[in-house]
Amino acid sequence: MIRVLLAEDMHMVRGALIALLNLEPDIEVVAEVSSGDKILPMVRQHKPDVAVIDIDLPILDGLSAAAKIRESMPTVRTLMLTSLGRPGTLRKALAARVDGFLLKDAPPGQLAGAIRDVAAGKRVVDSQLALAAWDRGECPLTDRELEVLRLAAAGSDAPEIAVALSLSTGTVRNYMTTIITKLNGRNRVDAIRIAEEAGWI
Questions:
Q1: Which helix (H) or strand (E) holds 173?
Q2: Which residues contact 187 (CB under 8 A, 6 or more apart)?
Q3: Residue 197 phi, psi (nearest 5)
Q4: What is the pLDDT along the chain (201 residues), one digit of tens a residue?
Q5: Strand, helix or coil at 65?
Q6: What is the gyration radius of the CA atoms in the chain, in angstroms?
Q7: Cβ distance 60 to 74 under 8 Å?
Q8: Are strands 2-7 and 50-54 parallel, antiparallel or unpaired?
Q9: Which residues lie across from 2 on neighbouring strands?
Q10: Which one of 7, 23, 135, 187 is CB 3.0 to 4.6 Å from 53, fit for a cystine?
C-alpha cells in the first residue's frame, strides 16, 4: 500500500482528490493539510511514501515545503501539482529536486500512475510542460538586466531603480529598452510578464 500525504488549500479540490485516490486499491491517503507550514509536522507524524503537494500553498509555498522534506526526511518522495503550466515553474521544481511535477487538469488516472511511479523511485514530469520548458531555452538577459527587471516588476520606476543600482536614470531607461527588445515584449509590462512566465525573475 502506498501511503500518501495530500497538501491542497482548496477544500473541494482536496476532498475530490482524496476520494479519487482512495478508490485506488494500492493507494491510501493517510494525511491531508491545507497550508504549507503543516506539511513537515504531518510527514514526520504519518511517514507517507509520497507527499502530493500543490505548488501554491498559503504560509509556506509547496516548493519550500518539498525542500524541507528532502532535507529532513529524504526517503519521502514529492509530487508537485500546479494549475499553472509555466516552463519557469517546472524549472524551479526541478531545481528543488522534486520527484514529480503534474498539472492539476491531468486525468485522474494519470495522478494515480504518477504517485505509483514516484513511489517506485522514478521521476515524473508532465510531457507538455517538459516540451514547453525545452522550447523556451535559456534566459537572454544579463545579470544586470535581470536586476533592473526584478526591480521594475516589484513596482520601482526608473529613478528608483537608478538609486537602488547606483546608475543614472538614462542608463536604466536604456536597460529597459534592451530588455524589452531581447524579450520581444511590447512594453515594460509585457517584458515583465514574459520573464515571469519563463521563470527568469
A1: helix 169-182
A2: 180
A3: -65, -30
A4: 999 999 999 999 999 999 999 999 999 999 999 999 999 999 999 999 999 999 989 999 999 999 999 999 999 999 999 876 666 677 777 777 899 988 888 887 899 999 999 999 999 987 766 655 555 557 788 889 999 999 999 999 999 999 999 999 999 999 999 999 988 889 999 999 888 877 788
A5: helix
A6: 20
A7: no
A8: parallel
A9: 27
A10: 7
Bin 59: left if φ > 0, else alpha if -120 < ψ < 50, else beta.
left
At 177, list the grid cell.
529598452
- Give burial (CB, 10 Å; 0-12/13-18/19+) of 75: exposed
Cell of 72: 529532513
Q: Are 52 and 24 in contact, with CB atoms under 8 Å apart?
A: no
Beta bridge partners of 32: 6
The letter for the amino acid at 7 is A
Sign of the four-CA dihedral 15, 19, 24, 25: positive
